Amino acid sequence: MSPGDVSSGGTRSTGPFTPARILILVVAVLSVVFIAENTDDVTVRLLIPLVTMPLYVALAVMFVAGTACGAYLFRRRPK
């Protein structure tokens, strides 16, 4: 039997709600709550110009950028 074979009685969860997916969902929900709670205006330096924007916009942009980078780095490549 090769390591890729799955036998009955294994300890690995194969349903839609694996522990890793639940953890990612919890972190995403907490991130959205954190972003929604921070609504004050802030001044952000974007290389040269100073931009005043709500903090939630800056946090949301960084959340999306981080999610995109993580998806790119850890995507599954077909064999």
Structural write-up:
This protein has a domain at 40-79. With 79 residues, the chain is of the alpha+beta class. Helix 1 packs antiparallel against helix 2. 48% of the residues lie in helices and 13% in strands. The mean pLDDT is 82. The protein contains 2 helices and 2 strands, in the order H-E-E-H. The chain has a two-stranded antiparallel ribbon. It has helices at 19-37, 55-73; strands at residues 41-45, 50-54.
In angstroms, what separates the terminal alpha carbons? 20 Å
Strand order of the largest sheet: 1-2
Number of helices: 2
Order of helices and strands: HEEH
Helical percent range? 40-55%
Task: Give the biggest sheet.
Answer: 2 strands, antiparallel
Radius of gyration based on Cα positions: 19 Å
Overall average residue pLDDT: 82
Indicate the low-confidence ranges by residue numbers.
none
Structural class: alpha+beta
Number of strands: 2
Q: Give the DSSP E fraction (strand runs of 2 or more residues).
A: 5-15%
Overall geometry: flat
